[in-house]
Amino acid sequence: MKNYFFLPAFFLYALVGLAQENPIIKVPLTHYAKDDRFDKYQITLALFEVKGDTILSMDFEGTRPVKPIRIKKPKGPKQFAYGNVFFSGSANEYNPGYISVLVGDPYHRNPILYVDHNQNFDFTDDTSYKLPYFNEQALELELSNATNKEGKIKICLSRTRPHGQKYEFRKYMDEYYAMAYPGRTFMGFEFCYREQRYIARAGQVKQGKEGFKIGLIDANANGLYNDAEMDKILFVNTNDTLLDATNPLNFVVFSKHGKPTYFEKNDKLYQVVEVDEAGAFIAIKESTDQVDFNRIKIGKKVPKVKLTPAKGNAFKINTLRRKEVYLYFGNKGSKNFHSDTLLLRQIAQLNPDKLKVICVLYVNKSYELRMFNSDASPNYYLVYGTKELSTKLGINSVPQYLYLGKKRRVKSYGLNPNDFLRSYMQPK
Fold it and tell me: Is 191 within 8 Å of 107 (Cβ atoms)?
């Protein structure tokens, strides 16, 4: 009887083990998130006077013929202005890639905004919104993709603040719109609105005590989040408040159609299994595939990159060509950062005449590097991490590690400080 029950239990255990080897992690992307450009956006929703029942199409500053568009105005407001919001998920014959809006009573404290969501230029069947005054909270509204209504981005509109702008700048803006859009009456810079965009969705990856924040960037602003070779997958530390879509250490672009997309985070390689077109979720799994991420091949030389230390003069890495070099790439939020830097001190003491250790630290401000140098008093080189440096050395995530032999030749990637220390101390 024991054998009878043992065999099925054994095979069941084996099957469970196989099923759990690389489980798929499905991450709901439940909310919009700010990317690094959100607070930098200086896009102006320019407004022009509506004359009669006609507005003019976008001519892109004279690069396209202007077409008159007949509209149907809602009742109530005595005066109307119109403008266009960029959204490449829209589709209409007059303004492809834009959605037209009307503003009723544009000179009032709280004008009424009508958004032509269905793009039929009948503004009586659309949602209306109250626009904010200078000190009031920004208006938030969503725009839906023409073919997938669940695919959306969010637009924030706030009143431009003329009191914070110099007179010369406001005059320049008025003159610019008058020149760039002849035949239209510009309502004035102080009666326009600042436009900010939520084009990212984010969620949290949880793996026991570890985790990180993951997000999608709708790079072409069409409301769809998985466009090949265009949209981005972002991965940052859990406590990071912004998704930095400009730092190549924090994102990958979706691969070509038919090719898998991979990324690295926290010493692990992940493959993207599925992404909801509307950005509702992303499914990933750990992978053991061999992916080079444009790394420099083993045995090849790395470029003669310039390194900028926390203290002292910049130098090129080829000044260490007679030594072996172990490089650690990280930031203060990296996994195991504290213990890793303690191990770097031990590695730096192993054979200082033949082995040099370099910690490449990525910080937001240069003074943060000097502060860490002052607090840690490292016995290794502490240098400033830059996008150019990571690109030239084939570094695509942090933490990451690069071991060089003499003459700058690559010996290995991916050997963390603990594994490197154990490997280096083994008898050769």
Answer: yes
